Amino acid sequence: METPYDWITVAMFAGLVVLFMQRSTAVAPRDSLWQYLVAAVGCAVANYFGNHAVEDKSILYHAIAVALILATAVFVFVVLKPLDRA
Predict the structure, then answer these.
(1) Three-state DSSP class for 3?
(2) What sections of the protein cross the membrane (predicted)?
(3) Residue 16 in contact with residue 39, Cβ under 8 Å?
(4) Dist. CA 47–CA 81, nearest whole Å
(5) Alpha-carbon Rg of the chain, whole angstroms?
(6) From CA 59, how far away is CA 27, in angstroms rounded?
(7) In the prediction, which pLDDT does 77 show?
């Protein structure tokens, strides 16, 4: 865990794990496993580009990593709805 991208994406992934564990205890699951897979892959790919951005000092890779982090966060809030109490 050397870059900010490591910390951000691992924190997002940890949040996904907590959300999945909480929702998996429900009687009727409201989320599909593929939805969590999409978000997890988003975290991994964003971390990949972010780490390469730091190593190569590439503005393009930084932009891609930030865009992927934001897109993953939007996906989680729109599709998985972690703040929804229903």
Answers:
(1) coil
(2) 6-21, 33-53, 59-80
(3) yes
(4) 23
(5) 14
(6) 46
(7) 96
**SS in 3 state form for 39-56?**
HHHHHHHHHHHHHHHHHH
CB atoms within 10 A of CB 35: 16
Residues 86 and 82: their CA atoms lie apart, in Å, by 10
Q: Which residue, chain included where needed, has tokens 């429900």? A: 26
Q: Cβ–Cβ contacts within 10 Å for residue 83, how many?
A: 6
Question: What does the pLDDT look like over 11-65, one tens digit per residue?
Answer: 999 999 999 999 888 888 888 999 999 999 999 999 999 999 999 999 999 999 9
Q: Which residue has the tokens 């109490």?
A: 85
62: which DSSP letter? H
What is the residue type of 42?
Answer: G
Domain boundaries, the chain: 4-24+31-80
